[in-house]
Amino acid sequence: MHNNDEVLVRVEDLKVHFPIYRGVIRRQVGAVKAVDGVSFEIHKGETLGLVGESGCGKTTTGRAIVQLYKPTAGHIYFRDIDLVALKEEPMRLMRQNIQMIFQDPYASLNPRMTVRDIVAEPLVAFGLATGKELDDRVRELLDLVRLDPDFMHRFPHEFSGGQRQRIGIARSLALNPDFIVCDEPISALDVSIQAQIVNLFEDLQKDLDLTYLFIAHDLSMVRHISNRVAVMYLGIIVELADRNEIYENPLHPYTQALLSAIPVPDPEHYRKRSRIVMEGDVPSPVNPPSGCRFRTRCPKADQECEKGRPDFREVLPGHFVECFKVELPAHLKEVTTEENR
To answer: In the predicted model, is pLDDT for residue 1 greater than 60?
Structure first.
């Protein structure tokens, strides 16, 4: 379990807007506000889980951090270096420290390259190894992700989905990075394989002192691997807290609805549990609602929620929520009252 206060990655008011063009002269008529003012920190050695519905901006956030997308506004600091301000070559060199594992193990590996060439590519690009030394490093990396090093001359189509994802992980580890963005790395895999890959991530984190941003929509898996969890909705983070805290005391109505949808193995507990069903569809990120982003689907929304966007504030130690209507459970009210005395 991580207990490090050193901030490795700091995201400040990140915005990523994709322009919409129309007509013959390609005039901009609007923008998709995929990420619209997101701030968080990731401490060295921890895993921050980022969850939310499809299309809420999770992947865009991850890709902006590794600078695959250029942010429209905001700052991304890696060890106090602002990645947004870096020119092309310094950013290329910075990628030795920051890597990404992609969602689809079928699309992220070049089908014309052997496993050796795929895993060796980062080492060749940075001129870090050649010849026998390169082959030895590839064998070492494949062994690290629990793949037979003798498979290195095979092609991606000869492997299963789980094995392909291991090849992708081996490639991301080639340069000994400190920080890895894991973009839904298990969602395309069979359930039986998902647990193996998550355990592999945890072992690698322990052995190599890695820091992860783990993007997913499987909430139970995120609880297993993360230290803290951030919940995203329509381009913003609505709640951020320690993993157990967010599952036991969800304070934002959206988080409560998401957690109420998780299947529970105990039928008795399932019967007692109240299921929260959200009304309507997710609004378009081209024209998000005024005020609180969630108000159009929130059972607690009133006129106050239309007027302005609520502050992202700390309502309990380490527990941040963006909502006007936060109601603390009775046992937590007593704790905060005693602390304030």
So the answer is: no
